[in-house]
Design brief:
The chain is built from 12 helices and 8 strands. The protein is an alpha/beta fold and 323 residues long. This is TIR domain-containing protein.
Length: 323
């Protein structure tokens, strides 16, 4: 998620009943997965209501619209919906409708009990504004979303929603992360350091011991850069360390921390950096004792370069789950 975004989700809903049951349970499940959600009751005292809500909607990556039977009885909610769909069109924000005890076709066509509440809300307002709300309801009713009537167990539906949200955020996080713009630069820097270290190793000898020192220092620097890069990605993905089978390691928050963190490119990078550090350490230890190092040609830079190319071909394309 972009660092300018304070929340992962914005929730638009109407009625204390919905908030105290469905939304509260959903919010708890999302928090357990490291996902933050803004709802109206999160507003700070003294903030202007409409501008504040518009700001919160625009700061969120995903908007969840809980469409209950009385949703259209609130002008506030309808204005939120218009802004949410505006962000979907202009900012490619993802919109996830939840049809909570209401038929999607009733929302889309503004009929049934849902339509009756909408008619009452439109009484006394301009035709232009009622048409704007009507179009927003038609649009959101046409989007794919969960229908609570299809679920016997609401907790199972909530688990499904949390999984979907987690997968969307994991699939799009690098598109909105500043890291994505610097990853190629970091790889290039590490490759240059690997090559420089290998060349220094080749030039090192008992007559030129300083090359061995240069090689070792560069290898250590490359390792430090790799560790800093890894720490940044762990924090960006909100991954957490778990002592679990088959390997104690960092895991993504989605799917209950069952998806292991990292990629083939990360593994290749770290493996090559450690390998070159090993070569530099061996050569330095020999030259420091007055003997030429046993390793004159290091293949780690070549392995690094080939590995990066192979990992790119093996990498699955990122799928944006925009509705």
């Amino acid at each position: 998620m972009d660092s300018s975004m304070k929340y992962h989700l914005f929730a638009s809903s109407y009625g204390k009943g919905v908030r105290q049951t469905f939304l509260s349970h959903l919010c708890r499940q999302l928090n357990q997965n490291g996902i933050t959600m803004f709802i109206d009751q999160d507003m700070e005292i003294g903030e202007p209501i409409i501008p504040y809500l518009i700001e919160r909607i625009r700061e969120s990556r995903i908007s969840i619209v809980v469409l209950s039977k009385k949703y259209a009885s609130s002008k506030w909610c309808l204005d939120e919906l218009v802004e949410i769909l505006k962000c979907k069109g202009e900012m490619r924000q993802i919109v996830m409708p939840i049809f909570y005890g209401v038929d999607p076709s009733d929302v889309r066509k503004q009929i049934g009990d849902f339509g009756k509440f909408f008619e009452k809300t439109c009484a006394g307002i301009t035709k232009e504004e009622s048409q704007r709300w009507s179009q927003a309801l038609t649009d959101v009713g046409s989007l794919a979303g969960e229908d609570s009537r299809n679920w016997d167990n609401e907790s199972k539906m909530i688990e499904k929603i949390v999984r979907d949200v987690s997968n969307i955020l994991n699939a799009t996080i690098w598109k909105k992360s500043r890291y994505s713009t610097g990853i190629s630069f970091l790889i290039a820097i590490n490759l240059l350091l690997e090559i420089t270290s290998a060349v220094a190793d080749q030039l090192s000898s008992t007559r030129k011991p300083y090359f061995a020192r240069i090689s070792l220092v560069i290898s250590v620097l490359s390792l430090i850069l790799s560790i800093l890069d890894f720490i940044y990605k762990v924090r960006a993905h909100k991954a957490r360390f778990r002592c679990k089978w088959p390997m104690p390691w960092f895991y993504y928050p989605s799917r209950g921390y069952n998806r292991i963190f990292g990629s083939s490119a990360d593994a290749i990078l770290f493996f090559c950096v450690v390998g070159q550090l090993g070569v530099s350490t061996v050569n330095f230890s020999f030259i420091d004792r007055g003997r030429d190092g046993p390793i004159k040609v290091s293949v780690w830079p070549l392995v690094f370069a080939v590995g990066m190319v192979v990992s790119k071909f093996m990498e699955k394309p990122t799928i944006s789950k925009e509705s």
